[in-house]
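Notes from hallway chat w/ T.B., transcribed later so I don't forget. T.B. wanted the structure written out for a chain they're using in a teaching module, and asked if we could keep both sequence and structure tokens in one place. Agreed to drop them here.
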Amino acid sequence: MSIFDTLKAMNEQYKATPAAPDNARIPDGKYRAICKEARLIEPSETKPMRLSCSFIIMEGDYAGRMLFISQRIVAEQTAFSYLKSFIAQMQVPVTDLYQLEAALPEFTGRIITASVVTSKADARYQNVYVDEYIGKGDITPYLKRDAQPKPFGPAAINGFQPVDIDNDDLPFN
């Protein structure tokens, strides 16, 4: 089956699905959120190394939606002051910069009140700020999980059913 046949097979579902509203962005305001993960992002040609944290909104109309906070890591006093302030707000024990990598798991589960504010420089973007550290919680109830993956594409159309097999049954172990 070609890619074009696959597109034709999905067409009815495509036509029945409404377009996302233009206001799909999270409105400006305060939200209680829990940190899903923190990670260090390698520098690129255009961006410096960053500490990036993803948060899940815990309650209200936007529960389950994501917020993101990134802090630049560059050898510059202003950038370091913002980075240190963020780490202190999150109450993660990092006194030396080289400890940051080992402390990344400490961010997970930290609950904050965050402010979402539309950027004054460019209204297409929003800034997220930590207002208050609330405590540490269990991230598990906020993670989206599907018990069974949803079938997609021609396999689902043709009634394909996955079969449980042992690793011993695979030819290349």
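Follow-up for T.B.: The beta strands are 29-41, 49-57, 66-73, 110-118, 126-136. Might be a good example for the class.
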